Amino acid sequence: MNLLDIEEHNEIYLEVANGGDSYKGMLTGMLGGMSGLMFLCISAYFFWHGRYQPALEVLLIAISLFIVPFLWEVLRSVPPPILFNRRTREVYFQHDDELFHTPWDGIAAVAYQSQMMGPYTGDMRHASLEILVQCFCHPEKQLMLSLGLPMGKSLELQESSWEYLRAYMNNGPWFDEHGRHSDSDVFIKSQLEISGSGTKLFKNTWERIFTEYKRNDGKNFLDFADFYLLIMGILFSPMNTIQKFTYSVAKRRSRKLWPKLVMERLEPNGPTTRLIDIEQKKNLEQQRQSPEKPD
Length: 295
Prior knowledge:
Blueprint: E1 6-9, E2 13-16, H1 26-48, H2 52-75, E3 82-85, E4 90-95, E5 98-103, E6 109-118, E7 122-135, E8 138-146, H3 155-171, H4 186-195, H5 201-215, H6 224-254, H7 260-263, H8 275-289
Antiparallel strand pairs: 1-2, 2-3, 3-4, 4-5, 5-7, 6-7, 7-8
Helix pairs in contact: 1-2, 1-6, 2-6, 5-6
């Protein structure tokens, strides 16, 4: 399991997926990658037996099962991800077309765990990791921002997620498994590959089976778990591939929703002033321009 749903990790900024929006594209993957593929095979069967009219009809159904949910998910508004800017040492977040932010220096996070017991579900634990952000030019408007979904997370995992963010902002952009600064991005790439493990299930399982085959000299190298994961990797590969493609298209559209104030600070030669400094400057100017009240 990856610590955070990281979308981008580079020298300037780190993007964390905005909660449940990280699952965007799943509908297109299920309908287009599974149902659509099934109808495509049926169409090929009809075509092979010379039944061209039903083959064309089933083919149109297969295409619509991909096109319709793809357009519906891509054209819907996608909130931008959570941004951690190393250049300005700030955190940016957009909610209901309003820009929220907080400076990194002096930031504090809260992590807490909840537990539910049920006769059918058993012990279920969820842990949240949140930080406090304020609205730009309206510091009285604040909210607690959750860094990822809490479902299935433990308190230790969320603490590790926070340490990952601290290592990036304080020691990064590249660091090793202990959070220490590194000139190599090998560890970072290994972490980013985990987030795309769904599309590599077949490849990873096949490599593990081949390794066990060589280690055991071709004897007793295949168990039920590997066989099951291999079959699941084949069946779910089209769905995961289409889901990843749909999400990447929707994500590119979401980046255009950031205000110019944020976009220019993501450039290598952009401004380095913090948003909180701009707010303080505006407040000072308003105080100077406001007339003094008589005693």
